[in-house]
Specification:
The chain is an all-beta fold. It is 0% helix and 38% strand. The protein is elongated, with a radius of gyration of 21 Å. 14% of the residues are buried.
Length: 207
C-alpha cells in the first residue's frame, strides 16, 4: 500500500547495522530517503501493530500486513491476507486484466468489463432507439474506488489508448499533487484476434 505520513515504530532492540546486505528503505512523502531496515535476519514483517516495521497510525494497514523474505534469488514480497493488499511499482509495460487494481498518484482504480447496463439501450416495441449523441462503443471501463471501497467515478475506455495525468491527458486529476503531468496510459491491443490491455508508466515521479 502507499506509504503515508505516519511515524514508524520499531520494537525495542538494537538498530540494524549498515552494510549487512539488502535493506528495506522508507520513502518519505517528498521522495527523500527515510529509515532503513536490514534484511540480515532473513525477513521483515510489516504491520500496523505487529512486526519489525510498524505504522501505528495508518488505518489502511492491517495488524500484520506483509512480509519481505530474503531468498537465494532475491527478496520475496508476501501479502499476509491484508485488506488493502500490496502495490508494486511497474518498471515496464504490464498486461492487466478485468478485476485488477492499480494506483496512479492518489487515484485508486479497477479495470472492469462492461456489463449489460453499459451497453446500448435496446429499441422499443416499434423498433425505435432513444436519441443521443453518437459515441464510439466502449471496450471496457475504469472504476475509481473511494475510501471505504465504494465505486465513485467511471471512465469508459473507447479509444485505443487512454492517457492519465495532472495536466496532460484524456483523464485529468489537476488537484492530485502526486500525479505527474503525464502519468500513465492504458492501451488496448489486438493480438491474433484477442484483445489485451497494457498499463504503462510514462516516466512519472511516483509510479
Amino acid at each position: 500500500t502507499p506509504q503515508r505520513a505516519a511515524p514508524v515504530q520499531r520494537p525495542s532492540g538494537p538498530a540494524p547495522a549498515a552494510g549487512r546486505g539488502p535493506e528495506m528503505l522508507i520513502v518519505r512523502r517528498d521522495g527523500s530517503e527515510g529509515e532503513a531496515f536490514s534484511l540480515a535476519g532473513g525477513q521483515l514483517t510489516i504491520g500496523r501493530s505487529e512486526g519489525e516495521v510498524r505504522f501505528p497510525t495508518d488505518t489502511f494497514i492491517t495488524r500484520v500486513h506483509a512480509r519481505l523474505v530474503l531468498r537465494e534469488h532475491g527478496v520475496e514480497l508476501v501479502d499476509l491476507n491484508s485488506r488493502n493488499g500490496v502495490f508494486v511499482r511497474i518498471l515496464s509495460p504490464q498486461q492487466v486484466y478485468p478485476g485488477d487494481y492499480f494506483l496512479l498518484g492518489h487515484q485508486f482504480m479497477r479495470l472492469d468489463n462492461l456489463d449489460e447496463k453499459d451497453r446500448d439501450e435496446p429499441t422499443d416495441a416499434d423498433g425505435v432507439r432513444a436519441f443521443g449523441t453518437p459515441v464510439t462503443p466502449a471496450w471496457g471501463k475504469l472504476v475509481s474506488i473511494g475510501v471505504g471501497g465504494s465505486p465513485s467515478d467511471v471512465h469508459y475506455m473507447r479509444g485505443a489508448q487512454t492517457m492519465f495525468g495532472r495536466e496532460n491527458g484524456d483523464v485529468l486529476y489537476p488537484s492530485d499533487n502526486f500525479m505527474s503531468r503525464r502519468h500513465a496510459r492504458l492501451r488496448m491491443e489486438m493480438r491474433q484476434g484477442a484483445m489485451s490491455v497494457v498499463l504503462e508508466d510514462m516516466g512519472s515521479a511516483n509510479g
